[in-house]
Amino acid sequence: MIRKCTEHGYFRGGSCLQCKRPGRYLLDDGREEKLGRFVSGTLRHFPASAGVEMDRCGWVDLNAFCDVMRKRYNWMRKEYLYALVESDEKGRYEIRESRIRARYGHSVNVDLDYKESNFPYLYYGASPEEVDVLLEDGVFPIKQRYVHLSTSYEKAAEVALIHTENPLILQIDALKAQEDGVSLKLATDYIVLAEKIPPEYIFVVED
């Protein structure tokens, strides 16, 4: 459920986390899910199939995007899209002026223009079965344009637990990799993107 607090903006749940007021109702869980699936699919995977044009950096015209969504969902309003984006705790999307894009998770070929990360170390969670291969061959994207690295051990473990019950966390020597020409793009406060991570920068974090 998405609501709007007059003082603190859009939020998810029954009350604003800051002032505890219920705010103005916008979207129920069902419509929020439908909207989220369409936004994710279009901005990450199939813009052409949805009927929108995406530029090299992943941007889509905001008005054109809303027009496509209204044709699919007659209850759609532009405010609902802003509410979805601004209330998303994971920061999956961004709206800038008259454009919208996904920050990460693309399978389409985009060149995201983020600034370089300045984290000295980054982290990647993997199953025990994968680790030997990753240490030998490096980390490459699978079904996505970029490798998604975490800015903390805790975030890497949280992500990895979605896929495996007993993840091992790999540490990336980010500063050394960047010195050697590996680009590490800061997509959000918690996610850094790379085209690949060669094995010489990867180490297993000991418990």
Automatic annotation (TrEMBL):
One of its GO terms (molecular function) is transferase activity. Its EC number is 2.7.1.-. Pfam families: PTS_2-RNA. Gene3D superfamilies: 3.20.170.30, RNA 2'-phosphotransferase, Tpt1/KptA family, N-terminal domain. SUPFAM superfamilies: ADP-ribosylation. Transmembrane segments: none annotated. InterPro entries: Ptrans_KptA/Tpt1 (IPR002745), RNA_2'-PTrans_C (IPR042081), RNA_2'-PTrans_KptA (IPR022928), RNA_2'-PTrans_N (IPR042080). It is an enzyme of class 2 (transferase). It comes from the Archaea. Keywords: NAD, Transferase. HAMAP family: KptA (MF_00299). Belongs to the KptA/TPT1 family. PANTHER family: PUTATIVE PHOSPHOTRANSFERASE (PTHR12684), TRNA 2'-PHOSPHOTRANSFERASE 1 (PTHR12684:SF2). Removes the 2'-phosphate from RNA via an intermediate in which the phosphate is ADP-ribosylated by NAD followed by a presumed transesterification to release the RNA and generate ADP-ribose 1''-2''-cyclic phosphate (APPR>P). May function as an ADP-ribosylase. This is Probable RNA 2'-phosphotransferase. It comes from Methanosarcina baikalica.
